[in-house]
Backbone:
């Protein structure tokens, strides 16, 4: 079946602009996660959704970062007023439920100039 | 102390040999453990999960968990050049849903 999909695959933006990253989880997966991966920080958790609710937002690095999920499916991660330190690969993962393995999408590589 | 620690490598193993990758974690209530493989420029791919003490085998891969020692390992038998990648250890702590990742071990299989 289809895996997790993310768009765009690459995004180059200028400092100060807003960006939206999209994640489409595996069909039927109720849990959705956002992570980011950068050279200096490794792979770090951002936010977790169960259905449309986000019970754990503890990894969002600042109030410039927000995310939503609608219809228990697609999620959007928004970064406002982007900074150069936001440059990273943003990875989305989904899971059949909160107990199970997480499967990653291909990621969005964000570059902030 | 980092929550999840791995030797960053690089670990170099001849083709056909056994590659052994190790991971230690600091939180005693961790309950779920995962190994992901990540090729350069690609996203992590789940290869093994283990939840209870002992060994779990899947093809050429064996995951080993020792909760008393807070240690989890991955053995790759009959290593192939296609196994060359970074291997990420991930831990899920009881009561939390996020995965905490180690920095990864870069493995190179030499033909």
Residues:
């Amino acid at each position: 079946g289809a895996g997790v999909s993310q768009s765009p695959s690459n995004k180059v933006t200028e400092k100060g602009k807003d960006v939206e990253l999209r994640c489409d989880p595996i069909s039927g997966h109720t849990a959705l996660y956002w992570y980011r991966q950068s050279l200096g920080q490794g792979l770090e958790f951002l936010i977790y959704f169960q259905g449309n609710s986000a019970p754990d937002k503890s990894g969002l690095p600042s109030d410039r970062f927000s995310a939503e999920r609608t219809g228990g499916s697609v999620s959007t991660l928004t970064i406002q007023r982007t900074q150069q330190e936001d440059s990273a690969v943003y990875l989305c993962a989904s899971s059949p439920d909160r107990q199970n393995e997480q499967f990653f999408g291909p990621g969005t590589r964000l570059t902030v100039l | 102390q980092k929550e999840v620690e791995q030797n960053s490598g690089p670990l170099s193993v001849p083709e056909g040999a056994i590659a052994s990758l190790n991971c230690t974690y600091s939180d005693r209530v961790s309950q779920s453990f995962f190994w992901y493989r990540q090729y350069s420029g690609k996203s992590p791919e789940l290869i093994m999960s283990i939840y209870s003490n002992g060994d779990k085998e899947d093809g050429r891969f064996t995951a080993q968990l020792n909760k008393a020692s807070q240690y989890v390992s991955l053995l790759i038998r009959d290593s192939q050049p296609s196994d060359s990648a970074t291997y990420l250890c991930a831990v899920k702590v009881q009561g939390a849903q996020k995965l905490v990742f180690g920095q990864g071990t870069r493995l190179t299989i030499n033909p």
The longest strand of chain B covers residues 30-38. Chain B touches chain A at residues 32, 34, 36, 42-46, 49, 88, 96-104 (CB under 8 Å). DSSP finds no helices and eleven strands in chain B. The mean pLDDT of chain B is 94.
